[in-house]
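Input/output pair, single chain:
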Amino acid sequence: MGARAAPIRSIATCRPLKACVRHGEVPGRPSGLAMLALQDDGRASNHDELMTGTHSDRLENGPLPPRAGVGLKPEHYREILETSPDIGWFEIHTENYMGEGGPPHHYLGAIRERYPMSLHGVGLSIGGSSALDKEHLARLKSLIERYRPALFSEHLAWSSHDGLYLNDLLPLPYTEETLERVCEHIDEVQEALQLRMLLENPSTYVAFADPAMSEVEFLREVVRRTGCGLLLDVNNVFVQSVNHGFDATAFIDAFPVEHVGEIHLGGHAADSDDDGSALLIDDHGREIADAVWALYAHTLARAGARPTLIEWDNDVPRWEVLFAEAKRADAAIAARRTNRIAVPA
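Output:
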């Protein structure tokens, strides 16, 4: 890959691929509410339209509100439709909805008619040395045309090579060669989708020796060359700061927040390396740590109010637990708007 890997941190098992992508899992067959998704005015949406996507001409794809959103999970479909919670927006992992129809699209269509939405990809392998998968890109374009999301984002990582798809998002060396490849791939994606994409900063467990540039410098140059935006994952910053021993606040201070279109928050697991030193795993399987909330407050002080996603992809909790995390983020955003930045209690 053009750089020598430094054994700074290592883990024995792979981190699950950003949500353990479910490829359309849904609890049970649709019945009752599943067959009649009600719109806000009480009219029943046509089931065939929801299944085939012909309702897309009624959808608007305006900007996400500067509020908290959550990742949409099958476990919560029915409760969301039954209660219409006061949530800013939802995000989906694109690979979970690349099939043509079925219950996942039924529920997604009904929820999309009520709420703004963003799409978050895990499978394009933006940093991979192979060409982008044209079929995957075509399916992504169809999904975007169908649901008209406000935003689409992907990862600064690689996850496939020569047709082999890996269950992880793997790190890249920050070299000119990598930079050129990443920019070429982003240009191709943006041209195909006719949409500005956001690129997410990674969480990593190993680092490359003697990089040509820092991660922040790399991201800034990607934006300059491609015109893409950035997705700032605050938990990823904190995880890397512990794993690689740098100041997370200084990282946020150097980050080009003027290009950030979305922020992510999530939980992490505490582990230890072979030498006993602290190792954090970005597992999205628990509540957000207090230290990450504090770093988020600092991020808002620099960047201002931004759409903020609560990621909870493994050991998915009851809706009220996830909703409570979103309300904490909304409280932090409200505090920023009134210049009363504080870590949510």
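The chain has a mean pLDDT of 81. The first helix runs from residue 47 to 52.
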